Amino acid sequence: MTRRLAELLLDAAARRWPVELRDDLRREWRAELHVLATDRRRLRMLRFAASLALHRTDGPLAGRRPVRGPIGRTAAALLLAPLGAVAIVVISAIVMNVVVGQFLLTAVGWWTQAQLPLWTAMTAGLAVVLARFAARWGRRSALTGPLRTALGIMLPVGVVIVGIEYAMSVEGLVRATPGLLGWLTFLTLVLWGAAALAGRGRVRAAWWFGIVGALVAADLAVVLTVVNQFPADPGTIVDGMPQYDTVDRVSAPLWILATWTDWSFGLPRPTPWEIFLITDVVVTEAVLYLAITPYALAYVISAGRSARVEPDAALPPRESIA
């Protein structure tokens, strides 16, 4: 199995070279692969094949590099990253259920209060890991300009989230539409601004602007969804009981944090019942926002910094100018 995988990597590496060189390169590389396989050095064999597959084919013999290289890498990163964020949410939910079911359920009485904080913490941790990779991808982005970069990030995100909502239920998609539209629009503007700041060299300001703006965007999305779902006024009261559920608007700035933590931070609002209502309609979207935002910010800020450095790097050294 290891030998077969290494051969597939060598074939991929050979296809990046001109046709007249491929057969000779394959024979040379497979001879080296045979030696490593004979010595049972499987890890070294995979490293050798992977290094050839990932190595850039620069130089006079490599021929003209295809334009689709950086464009293809950028498209792959922007299309796969939202799916990675969805995978993070799913994996975190599975781990949370295992931890709660196997350890907390019979050990402590507050296991129900631990579910959302655990889900949020694991999602945030994995999202930071994804963001580190996104920062590398952003440095090699083929997109030019802050607005194009922001749109390039958010368009695939919108398609993926709408697809997930539709797959779960059409009714859920209709219910979540106001919040999703608000989040997609506002976060696109935030990413645009963060990329523009990074392009001017104000990286710290870009991060602060992006983090605060993304938090506001997520809270705005939760507020729009909840307001569309629950009224503030209890309306007609029969036998001392309201006829439908309500959520007081006074605590709206805390709704996103309450959704992530299942807690009101010691404040009278939102009440435990209001937190239950809020999380019941928007918890999946709120956790998705948390999984997506770090990599989106890391990508646009890294791309903005690279766009600023690139023109200077292209200039010849001063000695040669003189």
Automatic annotation (TrEMBL):
Superkingdom classification of source: Bacteria
Ranges that cross the membrane: 74-96, 116-135, 147-168, 180-198, 205-227, 275-301
Record keywords: Membrane, Transmembrane, Transmembrane helix
Protein name, per record: Uncharacterized protein
Organism field: Micromonospora avicenniae
